[in-house]
Amino acid sequence: MTIENLSANKSFGGWHKQYLHSSSVLNCPMRFAIYLPPQASSEHKVPVLYWLSGLTCTDENFMQKAGALRIAAKLGLAIVAPDTSPRGDEVPDDEAYDLGQGAGFYVNASEAPWDQNYRMFDYVNTELPAIIESTFPVTNQKSIAGHSMGGHGALVSALRHSSQYRSVSAFSPIAHPGDCPWGRKALSAYLGKDRGQWTQYDAVQLLCDQRDCLPALVDQGQDDEFLVEQLKIDVLESVVNNNGLPINIRRHAGYDHSYYFIASFIEDHLTFHAEHLGLL
Amino acid sequence: MTIENLSANKSFGGWHKQYLHSSSVLNCPMRFAIYLPPQASSEHKVPVLYWLSGLTCTDENFMQKAGALRIAAKLGLAIVAPDTSPRGDEVPDDEAYDLGQGAGFYVNASEAPWDQNYRMFDYVNTELPAIIESTFPVTNQKSIAGHSMGGHGALVSALRHSSQYRSVSAFSPIAHPGDCPWGRKALSAYLGKDRGQWTQYDAVQLLCDQRDCLPALVDQGQDDEFLVEQLKIDVLESVVNNNGLPINIRRHAGYDHSYYFIASFIEDHLTFHAEHLGLL
């Protein structure tokens, strides 16, 4: 397996780099970005935070807009940002922004035509970490975070691969995709009409019969235009409270769904993960 | 004069907002962005840093990518980011990225067809500050900064309106536009072939016979792809050293021309301006 370096930008003493590789899970070339803090070297491997972005995003949005690299450089934490779906002329797509390319929803699709490429759950949790850990000066200690569709992806990844991650966090996650318009559309396309298949990709459903989970932090803006219809943080909060789960849900008056919100609180998230990754 | 609020995002306790207004200097509608830190109120006015962006940019690049809002919120400093040229179907343009819309070069054009709209020097230094100071809870204390073409704009603005600003800073400025390909192309189009007219928009030329100027900070990446051919920092450095000018030029190994570089050192710039604006 070869990976091709596409770009390199020094930032805060470390390096932001983009790579292209051939994904055997997704059956297409995939781009990802990594930030290696100045502490990372072959003699000093660092832990990794995986960041999953939201609808329409690529590997670039978080790296450019979140203000996270400054904090990662200070903490000695690597960050990996995958793309949000398989891509390319050979990959099925849809004209809508919320299905197909840019909208993989971090599931393993079972339905045609999506099932040949749309296996982002395995890509993010299995194939990509193996590549990262065999290529870069990082340890196998990792945490996962994301925004919106990526917040959903991070929560579901952490709940289903709880031994793999140390902690999980989300901004404005699609917490209950089985019961919101974005989620119903995507899950019915990728997984079919049988809602029993959707449960494995629904954080609220996965948490319903749990009394414990990984340490988790969730931040939600109260003026988020998608809060009521799409994100269902109220339902997540009910399950968390009913089951006594270690998920800290914080609500922030006045903040919206944008990176202006994420940037405002990303330091708390990176610090939270650094604590669980043994950096603090 | 009415201005229309286009967007509002809470960030770091303050507000990032975009506005549209009719510019009488530029003869077209113009968009700008302002960040008002949490300290700003009708009872507590704050000073302003004007940020001028580079080729192809709008009001959005700096606000989204520089990581500056966190620092402005901490310091109690407002930031205003104008667009980089007049815009619209009625405004002359060129197919190239380095002339016309997105490439105003912060000059007052004298040549047709540019002279009806391309008066960014007066827009940035006169019309826009008057609007800002009559509309928002800010003082008339201001500093100016920018990147690349905007670094050129900031230096020239500060040198020619030295009583208006407290300090100036630039990342990777086009320091000597009269003697680089970008500058020669733009200045000959906007100002005509008479190079005597270019002097007033060339930081190196303006500094040649000065023995003092506003406090200035310039950061330059040593791996900037435009350093040798376009930016001419060596020439600026010679004039600064020969004339004993209070311009601190810093060079940074490994950094390029991108916002990954700007983000790495923007805290130094905002702190520098805050000191000269009496905030520290």
Automatic annotation (TrEMBL), chains A, B:
Entry similarity comment: Belongs to the esterase D family.
Function as written in the Swiss-Prot or TrEMBL entry: Serine hydrolase involved in the detoxification of formaldehyde.
Active-site residues per Swiss-Prot or TrEMBL entry: 148 (charge relay system), 224 (charge relay system), 257 (charge relay system)
EC number(s) stated in the UniProt entry for this protein: 3.1.2.12
Molecular function terms from GO: carboxylic ester hydrolase activity; S-formylglutathione hydrolase activity
UniProt keyword Hydrolase, yes or no: yes
Biological source species: Pseudoteredinibacter isoporae
Keywords, sorted A to Z: Hydrolase, Serine esterase
Keyword Ribonucleoprotein: no
Catalysed transformations (reactions): S-formylglutathione + H2O = formate + glutathione + H(+)
GO biological process, one term: formaldehyde catabolic process
SUPFAM superfamilies: alpha/beta-Hydrolases
Source organism phylogeny: Bacteria, Pseudomonadati, Pseudomonadota, Gammaproteobacteria, Cellvibrionales
Gene Ontology cellular component annotations, sorted alphabetically: cytosol
InterPro entries linked: AB_hydrolase_fold, Esterase-like, S-formylglutathione_hydrol
Protein name, as recorded: S-formylglutathione hydrolase
